[in-house]
Amino acid sequence: MDENKENKIIDFSKKSNKSEENIQNSIFKGFEYVKLTKDENGNTFKSDILTEYAKKCFYVVTVLKTNGITPALYKYKIPYEALLEFLSNFNSSNEYGKIIDIERYIPEDLA
Questions:
Q1: Distance CA 94, CA 77 (A)
Q2: Distance between CA atoms of 45 and 51, rounded to whole angstroms?
Q3: Is 34 helix (H, G, I), strand (E, B) or coil?
Q4: Which position has the higher pLDDT, 43 or 110?
Q5: Alpha-carbon torsion, ordered 31, 27, 61, 101, to 10 deg
Q6: In this predicted structure, what is the pLDDT of residue 1?
Q7: pLDDT by residue (tens digit) across 31-62?
Q8: Rounded Cα–Cα distance for residues 61 and 78 (Å)
Q9: Measured distance CA(73)–CA(96) in Å, rounded
């Protein structure tokens, strides 16, 4: 695994340290999450900038489908605005396949 990616993985089992004011562990509807209030440089997030950035990103969703005997992976490039609509297709039915991975794709001009 890429060392930079390993450093950015959040340890959900680690209890939040009181000195780390920008990270808070909580649970919402049975799902654990981490709340971040500042970026890695200690700057407060700006919602309009984050939203504009997100709109320029895509998500690569990998779906496992079995056509007959042979399983196959399908990779879909989904724009930010269509991600929830795409995921809702898999919510109530298995006929579209099974989502096995979701990865954010950042265009090179944004990196």
A1: 20
A2: 11
A3: strand
A4: 43
A5: -60
A6: 46
A7: 888 888 888 889 999 999 999 999 999 999 99
A8: 7
A9: 12
Can you name the residues that pair with 34 across neighbouring β-strands? 25
Q: What whole-number distance in Å separates Cα of residue 32 and Cα of residue 13?
A: 9
Instruction: Fill in the DSSP letter of residue 29.
Output: T
Spatial distance between the Cα atoms of 65 and 94, rounded to a whole number of angstroms: 9
How high is the pLDDT of residue 72? 93
Using one digit for the tens of pLDDT, what is the confidence trace for 79-104? 999 999 998 887 777 678 889 999 99
CA atoms of 105 and 111, how far apart (whole Å)? 10
Which residues lie closer than 8 Å to 5 by C-beta, 6 or more apart? Answer: none
Q: What are phi and psi of 40, to 5 degrees?
A: -65, -20
Closest CA to 90 of 80, 102, 81, 79: 102
Compute the distance between CA of residue 30 and CA of residue 36 in angstroms, rounded to an integer: 19
Task: Give residue for tokens 């984050």.
Answer: 50
